[in-house]
């Protein structure tokens, strides 16, 4: 009966005008997120013979994206989405195309870094606009929670399907072909988003009074961003810990298996969270979700048995999408409408920054002490995130469950 009720709720959501179309086409529009960094890493490695150069190139892309996305979000809030989407829809694939043919054009390493940074700086603001649209499209709190949960599940699918497509292109062709596929997704991203009719439900307050710091002037949002960073540091540890287990088990590919199992758990947990009838607001639920994540993370440190690790990865995953959905719902509830898109893009910046920091720290831990210690670090990070979430719950005014 619970599964039937869950299916009925999502079926009712998808029957609403344009919802299924929006979700399907925004999935396509987000595919660069799931394919670009891995294919870029492998293509630059193949061109230069150096993982260090490839890693710094991807780092330039991610850093530029993290720094620029709030400013593009502000541009959307102030001038509407059309001009930012047109500009980024041209410059984003142009920059990736430059990197794709960098060796044939005789570009220097510095020029390749510039091309990667340009791609990151002009990444289309599709994620921020989509979440702003969902906030405006769904005024009923239950429907909004289901919509944001489904959005989180689609993000998990992007991060699952994207690397699989890259792996397929590597098996069938070459790293250049993998990046060429990702380039095609960058070319299709903005047109697909425009065809989704998401912009039909987006409304901006172009003439509203604003502060220079925008959403950063709001202490409630600053508290949510602090929580987002704490959670993302733990996620960065996962990205290193699971491949570390693969190496420890004697097959690097097993790290991918654990990541995939974790992603499947996250998708199922997100669907369950979005379909439940809950009696608490997102800020009350978040500390419970994060605290529940600590135990399975800590238990990773007790075993090198693949079957047990898969179970623990799945259990951990079931809490990831619900936790992220809770954070996005907090931003949706408390961000002033005049800063809506910028507020969501700041959350993306916090996630990228947190994952980057977590990856750096976890990389050193796994080299020195092994993957078990890395997952203990992740457990400690989620303990800190739980405490931060408890403080956030005290700072935010109560909202409907």
Q: How many DSSP helices? A: 16
What is the overall pLDDT average? 87
Note the beta-strand portion.
under 5%
The CATH topology assignment of the largest domain is Growth Hormone, Chain: A
The structural domain count equals 2
Indicate the topology.
Blueprint: H1 2-15, H2 19-29, H3 31-48, H4 51-79, H5 82-100, H6 109-121, H7 126-137, H8 141-172, H9 175-195, H10 219-248, H11 253-275, H12 282-299, H13 306-317, H14 320-334, H15 340-369, H16 371-395
Fold and architecture overview:
- There is one protein chain.
- With 401 residues, the protein is mainly α.
- The chain folds into two domains: 19-204, Growth Hormone, Chain: A (Up-down Bundle), CATH 1.20.1250.20; 212-401, MFS general substrate transporter like domains (Growth Hormone, Chain: A, Up-down Bundle), CATH 1.20.1250.20.
- 80% of the residues lie in helices and 0% in strands.
- It has 16 helices and no strands.
- It has helices at 2-15, 19-29, 31-48, 51-79, 82-100, 109-121, 126-137, 141-172, 175-195, 219-248, 253-275, 282-299, 306-317, 320-334, 340-369, 371-395.
- Helix 10 runs antiparallel to helix 16 (371-395) and helix 11 (253-275) packs across helix 14.
- It starts with a helix and ends in a 6-residue tail after the last helix.
- The model has no long low-confidence stretch (mean pLDDT 87).
């Amino acid at each position: 009966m619970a599964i039937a009720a869950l299916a009925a709720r999502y079926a009712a959501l998808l029957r609403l005008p344009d919802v299924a179309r929006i979700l399907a086409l925004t999935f396509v529009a987000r595919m660069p997120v799931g394919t670009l960094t891995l294919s870029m890493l492998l293509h630059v490695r193949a061109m230069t013979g150096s993982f260090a150069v490839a890693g710094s190139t991807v780092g330039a892309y991610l850093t530029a994206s993290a720094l620029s996305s709030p400013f593009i979000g502000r541009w959307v809030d102030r001038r509407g989405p059309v001009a930012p989407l047109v500009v980024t829809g041209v410059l984003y694939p142009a920059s990736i195309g430059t990197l794709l043919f960098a060796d044939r054009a005789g570009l220097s390493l510095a020029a390749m870094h510039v091309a990667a940074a340009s791609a990151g700086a002009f990444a289309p603001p599709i994620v921020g606009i989509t979440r702003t649209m969902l906030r405006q499209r769904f005024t009923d709190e239950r429907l909004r929670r289901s919509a944001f949960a489904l959005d989180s599940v689609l993000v998990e699918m992007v991060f699952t399907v994207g690397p699989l497509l890259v792996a397929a292109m590597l098996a069938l062709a070459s790293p250049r072909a993998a990046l060429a596929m990702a380039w095609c997704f960058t070319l299709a991203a903005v047109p697909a988003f425009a065809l989704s009719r998401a912009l039909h439900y987006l409304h901006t307050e172009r003439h509203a009074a604003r502060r220079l710091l925008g959403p950063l002037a709001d202490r409630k949002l600053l508290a949510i961003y602090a929580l987002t960073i704490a959670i993302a540091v733990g996620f960065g540890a996962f990205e290193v810990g699971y491949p570390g287990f693969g190496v420890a088990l004697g097959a690097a590919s097993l790290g991918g298996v654990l990541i995939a199992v974790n992603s499947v758990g996250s998708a199922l947990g997100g669907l369950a969270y979005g379909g439940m009838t809950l009696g608490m607001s997102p800020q009350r639920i978040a500390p419970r979700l994060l605290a529940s994540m600590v135990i399975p993370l800590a238990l990773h440190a007790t075993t090198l048995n693949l079957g047990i690790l898969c179970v623990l990865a799945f259990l951990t995953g079931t809490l990831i999408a619900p936790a992220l959905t809770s954070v996005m719902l907090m931003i949706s509830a408390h961000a002033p409408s005049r800063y809506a898109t910028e507020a969501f893009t700041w959350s993306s910046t916090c996630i990228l920054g947190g994952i980057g920091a977590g990856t750096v720290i976890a990389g050193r831990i796994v080299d020195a002490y092994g993957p078990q210690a890395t997952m203990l670090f992740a457990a400690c990070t989620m303990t800190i995130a739980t405490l931060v979430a408890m403080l956030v719950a005290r700072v935010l005014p109560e909202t409907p469950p």
